[in-house]
Specification:
By secondary structure, the protein is mostly beta strands. The chain has a single domain, classed as OB fold (Dihydrolipoamide Acetyltransferase, E2P), CATH 2.40.50. Helices cover about 0% and strands about 55% of the residues. The chain contains no helices and eight strands. The strands form two sheets. Strands 1-8-6-3 form a four-stranded antiparallel sheet, with no helix packed on it. It has a four-stranded antiparallel sheet with strand order 5-4-2-7, with no helix packed on it. A hairpin with a 2-residue loop joins strand 4 and strand 5. The radius of gyration is 11 Å and the shape is globular. The model has no long low-confidence stretch (mean pLDDT about 95). InterPro entries: Biotin_BS, Biotin_Carboxyl_Carrier/Decarb, Biotin_lipoyl, Single_hybrid_motif.
Length: about 70
């Protein structure tokens, strides 16, 4: 199991995956808005989305878990 975490605090503007989706290493899974910039968050490993812990519009903290992969 692997977790995709937020590298910095910000607002979630787009969650690109849902539970059950297969993702490959490098695929964008979430877009954060931080410091007035869009920051794409990519999967560091391939896997299947087990849990999505954020929604569009959520504010997340740095190091917060966004996606759990199986």
């Amino acid at each position: 199991m692997s977790e995709i975490i937020a590298p910095m605090g910000g607002k979630v503007i787009d969650v690109k995956v849902k539970v059950g989706d297969a993702v490959n290493e490098g695929d964008e899974v979430v877009i954060l808005e931080a410091m007035k910039m869009e920051l794409p968050i990519a999967a560091e490993v391939s896997g299947t989305v087990k849990e999505v812990k954020c929604n569009n519009g959520d504010t997340v903290e740095a190091e917060g878990v966004l996606i759990v992969l199986d």
